[in-house]
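Before a colleague's protein record goes any further, I have to sign it off. My question to you is simply how this chain folds and whether the tokens agree. I do not need a full report, just your reasoning and any doubts. This is what I was given:
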Amino acid sequence: MIHQTQQDTIRLVTSSAATLDVNCTVHDSNLGRRRYLTQVSSATTTTIVPAPTGVSEVDSIIIQNTHASTSVDITLQLYNGTTGYAFYFGVLPAKHTLIFFEGGIDIYDNTGVAM
């Protein structure tokens, strides 16, 4: 679980044009449970969870590489408006899914088998 204060965002840094579907679940102290959906299809830095209105906890981040053949390097960062602090870096192969949750990080292949 990641704790955010009012200036913190969660960013996804990607290395290739693989298409990624991103689903984030957050509990915001002022707004309650929120879900943020994002699609990324280039080498870029993307905010996947905006700064909260109060204090929030990121419950889960699910990233699915939907590309048929392209792997992608991904970095997840907590960004405080000045500096991005990486809390995960790895390669997500084509047709694989990364699930970040309170208990850790799992990666599943295209058949649903944990890697």
